Every structure is written in structure tokens, then in C-alpha cells.
Amino acid sequence: MSIQTTLLGVAPTLVTLGEDSYNLRPTLGAAIAINRAFGGLQPALDRIVAVDITALATVIAAGTSDVSEASVKRIVEGVFVHGPGRLVAPLSNYVLTLADAGRSAAKPSDGEAADEEGAGSGNG
């Protein structure tokens, strides 16, 4: 598998900043880039939730595989103009998807769904 291969066929996360649109692909390369930039995916999530403009832009750049200085500068400006707070939910979900090896954070796996269904039965 290539480092840029989209994991498990999950659709990219679309982020629109003004006239620019970015498809963030859940790839191993993106996960590694974000991991290196923040020292792990959890620290990346912490900075996203803190509405850190540079962190938001770094995640977007990593998700598009374009971390050139010019691209990151354009993304930082777009994040600010768009409103950084609006990006917390989609970028948090994107990083959570990476943390689960490309599986969508919004949908439980079959095993998790079965566990939840059985949670109501028991000795209680």
C-alpha cells in the first residue's frame, strides 16, 4: 500500500475556505504528517479544539498532501477569513478518522454496533 493510498475507501472530508475547496483524504501519509507536526494525533485534536489557526491549517495541508509554504500560507489566511471555529467539527472528525485507520469516526463498526445492542440485556 502506498503512503498516499486512501484508507479503506472512506470518502474525503471536503473543507471549503472561500473560493478554495480542499479534499482531505484519510491516508497514511496524512496521519504521519499530522503525527509529526503535533507529536501525535491526540495533541492535534487538542489544538483543533483550542481553535489554533495554525493547527487547523496544518491539518488541512496534511490532508491534501500539499505542505508547501505557499499553500500553507494561503490555507492559514483562508482559515482566518472563513472563521476558525467553523472548522473544529469537520477537522476533529477527520483526525478521528485517521486515528481509526481511515474508518469513518461517524459510523460504528459492525462489532461496536453489536456490542451496543447487547448492552441493554444482562443482569440489571
Give the uncertain stretches in residue-range form.
Answer: 111-122
Q: Can you give the mean pLDDT?
A: 83
Which secondary-structure class do the elements indicate?
mainly alpha
Tell me the major beta sheet: 2 strands, antiparallel
Approximate strand percentage: 5-15%
What pattern of helices and strands is seen along the backbone?
EEHHHHHH
Radius of gyration over alpha carbons? 16 Å
Helix proportion? 40-55%
C-alpha geometry:
globular
What is the end-to-end distance? 47 Å
Number of helices in the DSSP assignment = 6
The beta-strand count equals 2
Strand order of the largest sheet: 1-2
Describe the structure.
This protein is mainly α and 124 residues long. It has 6 helices and 2 strands; from the N terminus they run E-E-H-H-H-H-H-H. The protein has helices at residues 28-38, 41-49, 53-64, 69-82, 88-99, 110-118; strands spanning 13-17, 20-24. A two-stranded antiparallel ribbon has the order 1-2. Strand 1 and strand 2 form a beta hairpin. Helix 1 runs antiparallel to helix 3 and helix 3 crosses helix 4. It starts with 12 loop residues before the first strand and ends in a 6-residue tail after the last helix.
